[in-house]
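Fig. S4 source data, part A: sequence.
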Amino acid sequence: MKKSDKIVRYTAPERINHWITAFCFLLAAVSGLGFFFPSFNWLMNIFGTPQLARILHPFAGVVMFASFIIMFFRYWHHNLINRDDILWAKNIHKIAKNEEVGDTGRYNFGQKCVFWAAIICLLLLLASGVVIWRPYFASAFPIPLIRAALLVHSFAAVALIVVIMVHIYAALWVKGTITAMVEGWVTSAWAKKHHPRWFRELRQKQEKSTE
């Protein structure tokens, strides 16, 4: 493949940021399932022992949140809903057949939904996690609030796991997406097909920089 046919979609710092978030999510999600379901207690061994899991689980969650916040400030302006997103949503049946609809920018409506759902879930997880975090903060809160926080934390965790599963499925479904996050580049053909407006914007910037 010609080098000129490659388009940088994610820089090295962006990819590192993404994989730190993904790694911490894996640690927190797997150990969290071990806490939640007695039959899955063995999953807590992802940290070595169940005792270590109880200590390190919240720290993994905090690192995940901090890493995602960096991603949030990088990408939030690319994830604002516009008219093209409404068209995309109305034609979801075509999207399911791997057809592209509308003049999509850097991210399509589905990706934007994943982005906003993730930040909402993470905010709920952080807030509820602080309330139930023993031995550091839980003693400062009344028992009824801790019980409510446990429910919120559990529901938000399940919701985030579902959101990430959708994210992974979509990345596998659209050929070339994994390459973008592993190696950082996509082909011109991929960009034209899946994100035409983003492709045009990149070309316009390149043309201006060469003038």
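Fig. S4 source data, part B ends here. The chain has a mean pLDDT of 93.
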